[in-house]
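Friendly challenge for the regulars: who can give me the structure tokens for this chain first? No prize, just bragging rights.
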Amino acid sequence: MTLAQAAVQGLDALRARAAAPVAVSANLRVLRDPEAVQVAVRKHAKLGAQVLALQEAGGYLPQVRGVAEHQGYRDPIHAPAGAGRGMNSSALLVRDDVPVHAQGVALSRASWIGPRAGIVWPGRGIPWAVADLDGQRTLVASIHGPTGRNGDNKRAWRKYMRRLRRLAKRKGRKYRAKVLYVGDWNCPVGARDKRSVRRLLANRIGAHVVNPGARPPIDYAVTHLDLRGETGPRHGSDHDSIRFYWKDSR
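First reply, four minutes later:
Bragging rights claimed.
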């Protein structure tokens, strides 16, 4: 390869990175063939997003880890198996070249009743990282809210929102980071009642909701960043995937 060819190749790589999403989020859907899920995760990862947030990923962590290793992402951040059944539903992947200052999993320990056969789950794990997204220090987390915010799950929902507020306050203050919470909230994006994401979280941390127009309308972002959202292919899920770009990147 000549020097000129190498320079052109380098420019093409830079353009591809510049056109890549800041974040991609996808609900993988439970009870699927793990090999099909691995193919789906690989397709999402090939977009080259700086962060990849996954939900319903707990049963597919070996497949997710394999994709991360070969597609230029760090090892997935998720709750360990010992944290409790269902705590590792969400996973967060950060691209290898994105600086990470801290990472972990916040646990929201309030039991809630799932949509299938009335199964009781002990809580939710919230994988997070403080990373520099194009130089902007950001607390990013993969969100999978408890199913429902009323009735029997009201307490779990309030505790989950409280855990996200506390995480934003503590890590935001310590690292002077803005927030990007993205994923499957299990709360309609248009809801504005007293238990909505807007009222219990976005308004209280001075953030806004970015609605990509997903179906069902429960996948979106809460953030301080100036982003726009788009929907993407489902790749076998029952949710649209969602992508977020800087508003000035059109």
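The chain has one domain: 20-249. The first strand starts at residue 23 and ends at 27. Your move, everyone else.
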